[in-house]
Amino acid sequence: MSENYDLVILGGGMGGYVAAIRARQLGLSVALVEANLLGGTCLHQGCIPTKTLLKSAAVYQTILNSREFGIDTSQPTIHFSEIQNRKKNVVEQLYQGVQYLMKKNKIKIYQGFGRLLGPSIFSPMAGAISVEHEGDQGNTILVGKNVIIATGTEAKELKEFPFDGQFILSSDHALTLDSLPESIAIVGGGVIGVEWASMLNDFGVKVTLIESQPYLLPGFDQDLSRFLEKDFIAKGIDVLTNTTIAEHEIKDEDAIHITLERKQEKQTLNISKLLVAIGRSAKINDLGLDNTSIEIDRTGFIKVNSFFQTNESHIYAIGDCIGGQQLAHVAAHEGKLAVEHIAGKYEHLQHDSFAPSCVYSHPEVATVGISEQTAITKGLNYKTEKLPFSTIGKALVNGETNGFVKLIIDQETNDLLGVHMIGAQVTELISEAGLALLLNATATEVGFSIHPHPSLSEAIQEGALAIDNQPVHS
To answer: Closest Cα to residue 383, out of 464, 472, 462?
Structure first.
């Protein structure tokens, strides 16, 4: 027995459930298949729980430094179990919200593992989905006129250092820690590694951050990377770039011993935990892709065209499982675009150029558009302007003057090409820059836009005015 829909979506993360909602808005019948919990990695193992912990760490640091604001407090105490409970409550509230949205939009949820079938009695085309339910419930066959694969990713494991959940952790394991370790080494200086390093350091954990590349946050504008590295070192984080782990040994119940290799020199480190944050792999194993003509690229992600179609034109793929920026908001955007293409209402935008990337460390990092290194590689005729937050009144009021805004401008047209920020609350400021890029704004237009005073957003305006030699406060 099979059930028929206009659209079947594999994966109930942010990309999947946003696509489902958009499809219902366009009048399509929708089935969504999820093996675990609606909301996916972002809600349960990524964005939301980590940012909740980061907020607790930031509050702790604010209290520790409250004397700077003329307020004397007694020594604050970390109750980590209560911090973890708050994280669970935030996740649960949002999880209930996602379930409500599914009911409100009349989206049929199938709980179980979905697997793509080849041509069969259910459909002459590949792409019918067999949903394997837990227990003795058997399988349900779903036949969709179109299918969207939105299965996301999972933590990538080092062969030499398999996760054991006790000494060698993935970010999933780290989220469930009962207590803070005395010390930790984090392998990987990308977004995940940087956020965990910042958070644990703010909680008072001794942190060593290890990155095999010359810079933290590879792929980001290098001015941001250099500034962040200096800031981390000043806070007591041991930042080791151009470094790899040669070997490790667990000698007792309290410590893991690792040997680092840097510039052909070796160094031994004794730590409580090792967190591996070297990236994520597409969750496509046992998905039945071999029953279709869908191709996988050399990095292990699903190949799609500019409309998010696979080689099977009625089967689409979106979000982290196709690689790219691997951000929840990008997955949601791709989901909406894929559905609009299915419904014949598609207006294609090169969204990669306008999608902000944010790092919720302390200081925060936010970026949109191209980096200076990309501008050089492309041979563009560009100019830059950098505006420090120390010149902005609101930053002084907040006691957070660390950081800057960097603008990259086309020398000939004066168009914005990229905006890169590091400092307090820059993840809230970056959307203005993204909108400016989307609207193809010039630096002059951004500078003419009236910004409230005092506000951190004045840093963007001042930087834009400086491009035209019209700065006021800098």
So the answer is: 464
